Inverse folding.
């Protein structure tokens, strides 16, 4: 698995220096997010913006939220949840990859998730993270 940290670092610096926070993002929204070039098996962004769709799970403030990366690759098991994200295709929530991010990584809203699916995802995450 080859990583492209050299290209990601200037993109990351630009996002950090810009500190432009999106207005009105909320739980259940699906956004394109500059998630970055990560370590090992952590989910990476794609293309030159290192971005991918994410589901907003929890909003802590206008600057900070908890997200779940999304994929179109059909994966099965307790760490995944397929749903219709109102984006024109079935999405797979990568529940084990959930994480907190600075909201300046959010690029644009592309959809939302039905309340029923969102509730299931929340329950699954609680089960996975049960301590």
């Amino acid at each position: 698995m080859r990583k492209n940290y050299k290209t990601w670092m200037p993109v990351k610096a630009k996002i950090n220096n810009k500190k432009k926070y999106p207005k009105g993002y909320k739980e259940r929204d699906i956004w394109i997010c500059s998630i970055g070039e990560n370590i090992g098996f952590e989910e990476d962004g794609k293309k030159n913006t290192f971005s991918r769709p994410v589901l907003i799970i929890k909003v802590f403030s206008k600057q900070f939220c908890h997200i779940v990366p999304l994929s179109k690759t059909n994966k099965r098991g307790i760490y995944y949840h397929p749903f219709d994200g109102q984006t024109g295709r079935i999405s797979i929530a990568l529940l084990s990859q959930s994480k907190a991010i600075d909201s300046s990584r959010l690029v644009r809203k592309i959809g939302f998730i039905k309340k029923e699916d969102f509730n299931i995802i929340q329950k699954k995450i609680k089960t996975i993270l049960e301590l």
User: Anything to note?
Assistant: The mean pLDDT is 88. The CA atoms of residues 59 and 65 lie 4 Å apart. Residues 5-18 form the longest helix (14 residues). The chain has one domain: 5-128.
